[in-house]
Amino acid sequence: MGRFQGIFGIILILGLAYLCSNNRKKINFRLVISGISLQVLIALLIFKVGPVFWFFQQLGKAMGKLEQFASQGAAFVYGGIAVEQAPGTIGNYVNGGFVFAFNVTAAIILVCSLVAILYHFGVMQRIVAVIARAMNVIMRVSGAEALSNVASAFVGQIEAQVMIRPYLNSMTKSELLASMSGSLACIAGGILVVYSNMGLAAGLDLAPKLITASLMAAPGALVIAKIVFPETEKSMTMDTIKLEVKSQYVNVIDAITHGASDGFKIAMNVIAMIIGFIALIAFLDWGLLKIGHLFNADFNLSLDWIFGKIFYPVAWAMGVPASDVNNVATLLGQKLTINEFVAFKHLTDKSVPIMTEKGLLIVSIAICGFANFSSVGMQIGGIGVLAPERRGDLASLGLKALFCGTLASYLSATIAGILI
User: Fold this and answer.
1) Which InterPro entries does its entry note (predicted)?
2) Residue 26 neighbours by CB under 8 Å, 6+ apart
């Protein structure tokens, strides 16, 4: 029963998408079946084929090395700062002490610089185009939505839309929703490296799980989005996979400086969000605790308690072992309503502990995505700048995209859980 418990999750996820569909008669079941099959294939290759799993393990170790390289640059700025490590000992940042703000900013800045270099030489565009072309053939989705969804596995949610900027004004509403959903279901490469290294700092090997999540999210988001909003119009890019390879940078130095600058902006935004949200959570928990004590002196009401109850059925249906269901539900709630950084912080620092390997696999994939309420606002604002004429459509599709992006992550996690 344990292995196939996730079957209930797949039925629940697809059932919710079907119930929310705006045109059930137009659902392309070939697309749905091929998309889910592609997700299953990705999970099987990574977790069941030895050489492939080994490759992604090595990729994970390389991601850990990136953090070490990033620390070399950050050590020049932050060197000598004392940090608490094991109880009763004091280390320092240069010699391996983990300081969230320093480690996170350094890794994001380095990865953004590397991505900018790859983009300048056309490597990133060609990788995205090849994978998107395969998805276009397998799932029969349009070129624009395939490009956007694949790009979201490598770059940020707004940067992925920049890659299809020429098509934004002519995209159908179904394509636009699919594109937005993919950006919310996936995670940018720089952030994925950060989460992986947060796990390493806590003795958790999350890299293969997170890479799997990002790869499975692209077809998963298309499946859910095309159930919720089936295509009924003629796409201008149905058989077209065309990506502008020309670099926006003058030379490689310009690429590095722009990448570092963009990375710093992202890192500062992350730090600001973490401080703001965790402080707000502390404030709300204090108020909820007082309310709970009005009814019972032993009732410690909190956001975690509320999330654990609301998301409990979802976590169980996804196949999470009984010992971890409540804590996984808590993390699912934190990720959706607050943001994924808070959820990953509580997962990796074990303030919300996950005891089983299967529970860790499922929750790692389920919370590995940008789908939260604040990201919807960022998408509407960011894409609205790229295509001002579509701002009304973006606003009307925002919550649908959040719904689709969330279900896509849950679908990937459930499939992976069944296969393990």
Assistant:
1) C_nuclsd_transpt, CNT_C_dom, CNT_N_dom, Gate_dom
2) 230, 231, 232
**pLDDT band of 409, cuts 50, 70, 90:** very high
CA–CA distance, 280 with 411 (Å, rounded to integer): 30
d(CA 377, CA 99): 29
Higher pLDDT, 150 or 162: 150
- Cβ 354 vs Cβ 316: under 8 Å: no
Tokens of 98: 């983990």
CA 218 – CA 198 distance, rounded (Å): 24
Q: How far apart are CA 251 and CA 95, in angstroms?
A: 35
What is the C-alpha to C-alpha distance for residues 225 and 215, in angstroms, rounded to an integer?
17
Report the C-alpha gap between 100 and 85 in whole angstroms. 13
Of 367, 370, 278, nearest in space to 314 by CA: 367
> What is the residue-averaged pLDDT of the chain?
83
Distance, CA of 348 to CA of 195 (rounded, Å):
9
Per DSSP, the three-state class of 84 is strand
Give the residue carrying structure tokens 């679908």. Answer: 411
Residue 406, pLDDT score: 94
Q: With helix as H, strand as E and coil as C, how does 243-282 read?
A: CCCCCCCCCHHHHHHHHHHHHHHHHHHHHHHHHHHHHHHH
Residues 6+ apart with CB under 8 A from 282: none
SS3 83: strand
- Pairing type for strands 90-92 and 82-84 reads antiparallel
Query: Closest Cα to residue 206, out of 50, 52, 61, 396?
Result: 61
Assign 34 a pLDDT band (cuts: 50, 70, 90).
very high
What torsion do the CA atoms of 55, 345, 155, 29 make, to the nearest 10 degrees? 80
Give the model's pLDDT for residue 186.
86
For the question of whether the overall pTM of this predicted structure is more than 0.90, the answer is no
Task: Give the whole-angstrom CA distance, residue 412 versus residue 48.
Answer: 16
Q: How far is CA 114 from CA 56, 148, 190, in A?
A: 19, 20, 9
Among positive and negative, which fits the CA dihedral 16, 22, 27, 32?
A: negative
DSSP lists the bridge partners of residue 82 as: 92
Query: Contact at 8 Å (CB) between 36 and 223?
Result: yes
Token pair of 131 as six digits: 């994978």
Determine phi and psi for 14, rounding to 5 degrees.
-70, -35
Domain residue extents for the chain: 4-419
Nearest to 358 by CA among 309, 334, 324, 310: 324
